[in-house]
Structures are given as structure tokens and as C-alpha cells.
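assembly run, all chains below
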Amino acid sequence: MQKKRVSIKEVAEHAGVSAATVSLVLNDKGSISDKTRKQVRKSAKELGFILNKSASRLRSGQSLLIGLVVNDISNPFFAELSANVETEAANAGYLSVIASTQDNVETQKFVIETMIGQGVAGLIISSATGSDEADFEVIRKHGIPYVLCVRELPGYAADFIGFDNFQAGVMAGEHILDRGYRDIAFVGGFADNTNRISRREGVKYAMRRRDPDLALVRDLVGPATRQYGHDATLELLAQSPDTSAIVCINDYVAIGAYAALKEKGREVGADVAVIGFDNVPESAAWNPPLTTVELFPRSIGSRAAKALVEKIRDNQRPPERIYLAPKLVVRDSA
Amino acid sequence: MQKKRVSIKEVAEHAGVSAATVSLVLNDKGSISDKTRKQVRKSAKELGFILNKSASRLRSGQSLLIGLVVNDISNPFFAELSANVETEAANAGYLSVIASTQDNVETQKFVIETMIGQGVAGLIISSATGSDEADFEVIRKHGIPYVLCVRELPGYAADFIGFDNFQAGVMAGEHILDRGYRDIAFVGGFADNTNRISRREGVKYAMRRRDPDLALVRDLVGPATRQYGHDATLELLAQSPDTSAIVCINDYVAIGAYAALKEKGREVGADVAVIGFDNVPESAAWNPPLTTVELFPRSIGSRAAKALVEKIRDNQRPPERIYLAPKLVVRDSA
DNA sequence: CTGAAAGCGCTTACAG
DNA sequence: CTGAAAGCGCTTACAG
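ok done. output:
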């Protein structure tokens, strides 16, 4: 029952020209008379012709597909990033294929291979935790341009667009110290997440600079979720009751911390300071409004797409690493 | 500098068999000896072979690509829906292509054609406001299975997975009336959005059932954004100061209403009731926690993907419409 | 159990 | 300015 698609051949017959001519017109190539051009376009439209990209990709080796690999598309951070990649790519004529890895290296491998199989012209990747160079070797082997974003592979010479996480950590740390807090805990995120490491080291750097003897009260490792923020904070209050400030790996962890603190009768922003990262839109409406370090997923998305498009045009371009500056947003929680 | 991809032919040579045999092994078809099978797989692995899907799709007409068309991927509602489509599709062996329409009919047309050109096996569409049957005619003509979700085309015989928006409206209306509010306004969303119409009619139905003379104080049409929620509420307070309850088209509009009410010194949940739709995760943490009608984007996503996969297997299946029941979540704002 | 050959729908030199 | 022909990398009857 699958209807027959109309091919270039049928358009050619309808227009009274050859298939080659139709192809030339459709791709705005060659020197075709205006009359023929018009006739071909008219026939194509009348027949409802849609170019079969599989065939054209196969023959020409040219693709207008871009692949975006993220950890979890339902995370608002990546959703916003994806939206901008998509828009920017569309401006350059590319369609985006998006897939999530669930932050799992095996899934990431599968997804990348599938995308290569689909014939993507290039790839934008926020690498899964635990990735190393070998995981991107397939891409190199196939000569496909790619840019990494958000999560960096230390010492890996590839294009990268991300934040200066260390600086973000320093900003958070200095702000808390300025407010007079000294017993600081770091909560959430997995141990080998490079963003986590940089942010935490930034906080520690700010602390040492203030007072060489100052160290984190606790460093709690776990998923970057509201639930974990809640549970970890409870643990923190039980085991290190003197903790006066909690630096959370993101705003969701922070809202979990809010809940735990309220359960225990501690006032957020007065008894205990809480600071997050991301500045999700809702955090301004929380009670109290959250102090956080804003990152810019939308900028990352469009910069990454632009970089990839350039890379596709010239794969010889030497790799660039771009770090966007974070911004401290002071509200009432710290 | 583009490296040459290894083809099935090279694998065949390396394994000492024909290309046909390699294809058969890779697709688990035909009756190939175990020995040959193993040798072929080994060669494919050694050479880093990845099947060229463009070629296989061209030849076989079979595709493992699914297209998802939504209004705006950065909207958490669609982000969650998309995530589940993707997961469910992946379980069935399909890769998802996601694209946003910006709720624009022209963009939607372009996106659908592009996806057909890419050779998708099926399409899941949350139609742009203002779409009609003609916009999906291309898909039918090409014999491509598709299912609509979230937004319904009235009277259109196609598979559909969505919510019972009328029921959601009734739930919101009845709750507010039970709490004693009578001067109710409806805020946000565009006039021809079918979800908006159904929700509003549900509210009005609940009102008439309570008292035939009861009618909405105001019906404010506009974008479903926080900003509009804020501005419209300000307008409402100025022009209809007796308004005692605001039904917002979604939770983001509701948080905008919160802001405006606070600016004007009105206490949310006491002076003026506010109710939303969606139950975005953060709404529980707002001040006060939001009363809202929960919808289930994740369920829509997985149901839609399942329906599409079945439809791809049997395009003769008569269209089904599935309406998921909403759930009232009572907190402190109404 | 395996191979030779045709063909999917395009694009691209090349010839005229 | 336009057409005939080859070929991209696969899959699929068919023959043996």
C-alpha cells in the first residue's frame, strides 16, 4: 500500500527534458535556460516531487545532516542548547539529528556509529562521563568534522565550546566567602565529571586564596538531581552540623537542598547559604530566590553549530577551544 | 582529506567472500555457514566497517529513521516528550530526527518535507497552531505512517495521542468553584490553539453546571509565556479588579501571574487564586506552591512512539485516538 | 550455502 | 544549453 514516490525521472518526462537537466535545475548548477528551469520547477511542484536525499547523498557524498549527541535531552540545559543548535544549523541549511546517551559511554558509541551510518556531515558532542579519545576515534577515521561542547576531554586536541567552570567555581566560592561563610560543602555530580572537578577546584582555590588553611567541610558525590540534593543535605546536616554553606553542582540539586533544610527547620540564606549553577529560569521564583552562577547553554548551542559548519567547509582549520564566561547572579539564598 | 569509508566490497575482499554474502550476514538473512558468518563479522570489525544507510535505504526502501516534529524543543514539556519518543523509538531500533517548527505552519511544511527527503519511516507530529489537513497531505501522498500528538486537528481521521483537555479544564474549574471563587479569568495561549479552547470550554462548562449565569470575567489571549502571564495579570487587575481567580494556560504563565500579583500587593492563594496546567517539576517549590493540573508529556511521548512503530508495521491499522487523563494537583495557590 | 548481476534515485564529468 | 552513461554502496531475486 506504500505509494510510489515520484522520482527525478518522472519529473524529467513530465517536463520533457532529461533527468540530468532536472538535477541541475534542482541544485542550481550548470547553465540551463530560464525557460527550461521554469518548466522543470513547475513539473516538480505539480508532481509533488521531493528529492530523495539517500540517493543524492550516496552519489555526491554531500550531506546536509548534522548530528547532536547529548546526555539527556529532557534536561532543560541540554534542551535549550539543542534548540539553538537546531536553529543555527537550519540557518545554514542543515537538518539536525538529536540523540541522547543517558551519559553512558556504550550508548554514546552506538549513537555515534548510527549517526555516521546515517551519513551526517558533522557531529556536535557533549561527551558522556568517562569518555576518552578512543571513543571519538571512529569519527576521525571516517574523516567527519566534529566539535565537542560542554564537557571537555582534558588534553584532547579537538574543537571545544564550553564554560570556564573553574572560573564559575571561583565566583561561587568568593561570593560565599565575602558573605562570611567558612564551613562550605560541595554537593552533587559524579566524581569523574570534568565540569564538577573544575567547579569544585575553583571553589577550593578561592578558599585557599582567602586563607591557606581553609578546606571543604564535605564533598558529596552523587547524581545531579533534586532527589540527591535533598538526601545529601540531610546526610550533611546529620554528620557535619556546622556546615554553613552548600555549593550545589546545579540548581536542581539546590532546590533539593532547600527542601532538606526546611525539613530540618533551617532557614535558607540565613542559617545556611545555598548556591547553585545554571540559573534555570524558575530559580528566581524559588523561596528564597536562588543565588547561582549563570551559564549560557543557548550560546554554547549556537557557537557550536557555527563552529561545526565552518569545520565542515574546511576540515583543516586548526582546533579551537572557546570558553564562555559565567555570570554570578546574586539573589537571597547566599 | 576526507578519508575513504570502507565499503561492503572491501569487507568482502578481506573476508574472501562476495559482497552479497556480507550483506546477508550483516542483515542476519539467508543461510550462511557459521564459519563464513564469523569470518565476515571479524573482517567488518577489523576494518571498522559502518553500513552506509543511505545506500541501504535507497536499495531496500527500508528506513530506521523516525521523525519528530514539535513546536519548540526548548520547552520542557516537549523536551520531556521528545526524550521519551527517542527512548521508545531506540528500543524498537529506530533513530529519531527531531525538529522544531516554532509553532509556524510554513516552517512545519519545510520540516516535514525535509524529513521525507531524508527517508524517515514515520512521523510523530505535534501540529503547529493553524495547521489543517492539507498540511499533512504530503505525508499521505508519500504513504508514510504518522501519528499526531498533543494538538488535535478537529474531525481529522488520524492517529492521535493527547490529553483530555476539556476534562482538564473541568477539573480546574470545579476545584476553583469548590473553593468558593466565582470571578474567574482565563489567561494565556493563542485563540486558535485547540488545547486552549478545550481547556477554557471545560472551565466554562464547570461554571455553567454550578450556576447557569456564571461566565468568565475575562479571556486574555496571548503567548503562553511567563512574560505574558505577568503583563496580562497587570491588565486584569487594572480593568477587572474584582477578579478572584486566574486560570492560566500553563504553569509558566502562572508564575508570571504570581509576579504581577505580588507587585500589586495581592497575596496569591488568599486574595487571588491561581491555577496552572502541566505541573512542571519546579512548581512545587514556588511560593506559594502551585495548584495545577498535571499532564503527562512523557507518557504521550512513549505512547506516540509505540503507536508509530505499530503503524509502520501495519499501515492499514485503523486510526486510533488516545486521550490520557489529567490529574489535579492541589497545593496552596488555589 | 554462496556468487553474479541488476537496480534503487540520484549526480557528474563528458560529448555535442 | 542539454542528454547519454557511468557509478555511489547497498540488497535481492535467481542460479547453481
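Residues 15 and 40 of chain B are 6 Å apart (CA to CA).

The first strand of chain B starts at residue 65 and ends at 70.

not gonna interpret more than that til we talk
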